[in-house]
Design brief:
single chain; alpha+beta; four-stranded mixed β-sheet; two-stranded antiparallel ribbon; 7 helices; 6 strands; globular
C-alpha cells in the first residue's frame, strides 16, 4: 500500500506536524529556523548538575543545558536519529531514513549508525568539539584540552541517554530519541 488509508485517527493526524520537526534543516527554512516555533526537551530542564570540568570554568548550569539542547538539535536531529512510525514517514513531505546514534567511539554503519561525537588522537574536532573549544577557550591542539572536550562530550551522551529509547539493535550502544522526549513551544519559552 503506497498511501495510508484516508481514515486516520485524530491522534495520528495530530502527530504528523510534530514529525515535521524530526530534522533541523541545514540549508532551508522551517518554522524553527525562522524563529516561529521551538523544539524543547523536558529532560534537559530536569538536569540539575553540570560536569566538574564545566563548573571549574565558572559556567552556569543553564549554559550546560543550552549545550545539551544544541547536541540534541545538531547531532541527534541532524542525523534524523528519531523514532517515527513507518506509515507516518510517507506523509512527511521529504524522504527521511531514520538513523541511530552509537555511544562515543562506537561502531558506525554508513548511512545507518553514527557515533556520538568524541575526540580521538590525530582526528580533527567535529562541530560540537569545536563549539566547546571556542566557548571554553580551549586549545584544540593541546592533548589536555582535547581530553576535557572529550570528557564533556561523553558526559553529554550520558546525561542525554535517558531521552533515547531502545532500538532493534543493542540498546546499550545505539539509540533513537523517543517522541515523548520532545515537545514544541514558542521560541524563548522555558524548557
Amino acid at each position: 500500500m503506497r498511501y495510508l488509508a484516508t481514515t486516520l485517527s485524530a491522534s495520528r493526524i495530530a502527530n504528523v506536524p510534530a514529525e515535521e520537526f524530526a530534522r533541523r534543516p541545514k540549508r532551508q527554512n522551517s518554522l524553527e529556523t525562522l524563529g516561529l516555533a521551538a523544539v524543547q526537551y523536558p529532560h534537559i530542564g530536569r538536569i540539575t548538575d553540570a560536569p566538574p570540568a564545566w563548573r571549574q570554568r565558572s559556567l552556569a548550569l543553564t549554559d550546560w543545558q543550552d549545550f545539551l539542547k544544541l547536541c540534541m538539535d545538531f547531532v541527534v536531529r541532524s542525523y534524523a536519529a528519531i523514532s517515527i512510525e513507518q506509515d507516518i514517514l510517507r506523509w512527511m513531505g521529504t524522504r527521511i531514513a531514520p538513523k541511530r546514534i552509537a555511544a562515543p567511539g562506537g561502531q558506525q554503519v554508513k548511512n545507518r549508525v553514527y557515533a556520538w561525537p568524541s575526540v580521538g588522537p590525530g582526528r580533527p574536532l567535529g562541530r560540537m568539539g569545536k563549539l566547546l573549544a571556542r566557548a571554553l577557550r580551549l586549545d584544540d591542539q593541546s592533548s589536555e584540552d582535547r581530553g576535557v572536550i572529550d570528557l564533556l562530550l561523553k558526559t553529554a551522551w550520558e546525561q542525554l541517554r535517558p531521552t533515547f529509547g531502545p532500538t532493534r539493535m543493542d540498546s546499550s550502544s545505539t539509540s533513537k530519541t523517543r517522541r515523548s522526549s520532545r515537545r514544541f513551544g514558542r521560541p524563548g519559552s522555558a524548557q
